[in-house]
Fold each of these.
Amino acid sequence: MDRSQKEALVTSMNGVFDTASSVVVTHYSGLNVAEITELRSRMRAAGAQFMVTKNRLVRRALEGTKMEGLSSLFEGPTAIAFSDDPVMPAKIAVNFAKENKKLIVLGGTLDDKVLDTTEVKALAQLPSLDEQRAIIIGLVQAPATKIAGVLAAPAGQLARVLGAQGAKGEAA
């Protein structure tokens, strides 16, 4: 990799660290190409990315960004997962690490807050951005459905009472 390619990579990574909602840092030592490809495809399907990093270049790219606190995690064979959705990189990385013990989650960030391993695992337990939107829509729609049910209930009760009175009159 020549100097211009390194500069382009640092600039690109600097943009990632400035714009991504969350970044998860992992050790991938021992993963083979098929396993990394599987992890990348899972990330891509969820709108996230997984990238093997060059530690020295990433530390340089982190300088001056909101995620600068991550620089101490970049030692050894590291890779990052990142996305605009704050939950998906953590969720996919943690789930993949449960299936494959060769992937180790080191930490990450959520906006400008540096997270340790346990905080990343807790973040992975949260619903994704799309799931959160669905929950909110369900909560907004629920009162309207309940109001319609309450308004329809008296008419239904009246019909049942009249039906019972009519059945009582026919029986007599």
Note: Residues 3-126 form a domain with the Alpha-Beta Plaits fold (CATH 3.30.70.1730).
Amino acid sequence: MSNIGWPTPVELTCAAGRMPALWRAPAIGRDNACNLLFVPPFAEEMNRTRRLMSLVGQGLASRGVGSLLPDLPGTGDSDGAFADAGWPEWRDAVACAATHLAGQGAPVLLMGFRLGCLLALDALATGLAVRSAILVAPVDSGRQHLRHWLRVRAAASLESGQRVSVGDLQKRLEQGETVECAGYELSPALAAAIAHLDYGPLLAATTVPVVRVEVGTAPDGVHTAPGRRHVAAPAPWLLAEPGEPSLLADTLTEIVLEVA
């Protein structure tokens, strides 16, 4: 059995502390055109997308592209709790991981997912230098994305018998209270930072080439346009029990190779 694409744990250190990551080295003997840095999505979407990122990393390794998947501060096995996570610390962590990858001697590409797309764009807007970025199903409005998670929390309260509204949760955050959403403790500072993010202005401040990938049903499979792709495949971050996202993983792998 080939070991190509098997992950190797690495320990990075960013401003927030220890940040573990999984490195998938490119196959020996292949030209290493670039290395890819994954920027994960938010909260439960991060868990639902992890298998997809793993498959993309494996596919890229066999084609000569290395990849790095970090546990951002407060997530996975990194230092700190999610309740202590902050947007500036996440942005610094992305820059730290990109710097580590750049030290491998090949150009760096970013691949963000959902809210991770805004994090990638924010890092680029504040000086991160990479070759290009691939943004998968990016969140257009941080405020609307935040309200989505508050609605999830409000819906869960109906089953628990302790009913709470989105307005109630928003008020708690504004009063400085940490709020639990889908099993994650969301701090007022992180909520406020997310609410002020918008895709358009962040994209406008970015100087590197960007490819936006939309995911969902479409009649003719993959549609191409300048700077945009449309992949007709299930979006794992929307599914409570995602299936094997092989089609999406294969397509994202090919997009990386095109961009590289």
Note: Helices lie at 44-62, 87-102, 115-125, 142-160, 166-174, 188-195, 199-204, 246-259.
Amino acid sequence: MLTITGTARFVSDLHLRSERPDLTQRFATFLADTAASNVEVLYILGDLFEYWIGDDDLQDEFNAEVCSLLRSAADMGPRLCFIAGNRDFLIGADFAAAAGITLLDEVEKVGAGGTATLLMHGDTICTDDLPYQEFRRMVRAPQWQRQFLARPLPERRAEVASLRRRSAEAMQGKTAEIMDANADAIKAALTTHGCTRLIHGHTHRPGREDIVLASGNAERWVLSDWDTGRGDALEIGPAGVRRLDLSR
């Protein structure tokens, strides 16, 4: 378990895309502030991009711009760590090397502010959404990914556009409760990894929750998405835990 002695920041669900240059500018400002604030490590907990179709798309102008922003920030000091989300799970070693980020597993345990803290994107604990979990198992399978990445870039873009349309349609028929994290799954994750704090995104339902475990009390922090008129980051340092408003 990595113990963070300085300040750590956490963001998720930026959904960066070329059609929203305002999001890219906000991210650039945030990265510059993160470096200037002597932050030790920045954790990006998935869905940095609206979609990612493979590292061989790095030459795309927009993708190259975001990659350059990350590299510049990494060169200024903070360590940048990334956990894949449900939209950018195909980010791989080539992008990581170019951007100066460290790819992490689906679940990461760190010591932050003296507390054993569990980090994840958050989709794995939304266990009530059975159709999504089935889809997730399909696209995370190595064979599916090999076949998808072997297709030409234009075909992959068209497939992703189709998947996004179908996902939006499917969400119309789901309740907010089904798409939220499952209480038992949250407790199980914290207990399994021996943590008393969980930080994640994915649900787009930012907030803080007190959780009672068999071993004692714990807490859950949910990060905001950035592309619906809001946006935040969580900061943990010597002064404690605070949420940063990045909506402007």
Note: The mean pLDDT is 94.
